[in-house]
Design the sequence.
């Protein structure tokens, strides 16, 4: 086993250990802990936003800033692909 | 890409209107049913990609210019951000149309209900803007890649 493999195995063990610690300290499956925000959105999204679809009211209203970032990622992807493949279009 | 056989082209002609109608339905009903701008835009763009594959990227590029798709995508992005800025008197992304009456201004009854299209304020407009952006973005990605594949097949790879 080379030194490189040893480093890989040790870092994998550390990662698995932390994942196990995280899984051990999780709350039990199906038990809802702090659900104030969920309850608020479920009970208020219809009269505040007016949308029947609570998911869309979160995506475009309560957390619209997140959707703006998502749209920016799509824009960056399109710009990247066009920058790479564009030269042919002009010739 | 060169064009495919006549059978494939006829079937894609037949299927295109249904795919477009379904995609625009998903975009416009984003505030009532599952889906929204991103998902419906992906459906419409996949319909356009089907036509592109069936007819070849050169013929498709003579119908839909990549420059026009870029303009459409910019219109979608600007519409989305300007709708967000229009609510700035309260907060960024504030839903200033909800509950005001008029276009999209109605409030649905509490609890489960069949839903009306003219509710939810700015949400349908934002869905439309994002849908336009996704349609134009995905279609221009596939169009540019198809044109480039044609170029590389002709021996353009020794060009730096």
Sequence:
């Amino acid at each position: 086993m080379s030194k490189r493999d040893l480093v890989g195995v040790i870092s994998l063990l550390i990662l698995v250990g932390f994942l196990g610690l995280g899984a051990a300290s999780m709350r039990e499956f199906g038990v809802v802990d702090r659900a104030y925000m969920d309850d608020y959105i479920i009970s208020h999204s219809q009269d505040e936003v007016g949308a029947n679809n609570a998911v869309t009211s979160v995506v475009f209203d309560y957390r619209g800033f997140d959707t703006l970032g998502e749209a920016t990622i799509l824009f960056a992807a399109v710009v990247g692909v066009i920058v790479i493949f564009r030269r042919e279009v002009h010739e | 890409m060169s064009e495919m056989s006549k059978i494939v082209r006829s079937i894609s002609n037949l299927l295109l209107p249904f795919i477009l109608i379904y995609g625009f339905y998903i975009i416009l009903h984003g505030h009532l049913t599952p889906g929204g701008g991103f998902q419906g835009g992906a459906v419409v763009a996949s319909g356009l990609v089907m036509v592109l594959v069936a007819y070849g990227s050169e013929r498709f590029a003579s119908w839909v210019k990549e420059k026009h798709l870029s303009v459409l995508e910019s219109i979608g992005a600007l519409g989305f951000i300007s709708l967000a800025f229009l609510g700035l008197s309260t907060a960024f992304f504030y839903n200033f149309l909800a509950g005001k009456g008029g276009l999209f201004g109605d409030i649905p009854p509490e609890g489960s209900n069949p839903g009306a299209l003219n509710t939810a304020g700015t949400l349908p407009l934002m869905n439309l803007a994002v849908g336009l952006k996704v349609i134009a973005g995905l279609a221009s990605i596939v169009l540019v890649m198809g044109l480039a594949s044609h170029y590389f097949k002709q021996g353009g790879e020794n060009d730096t």
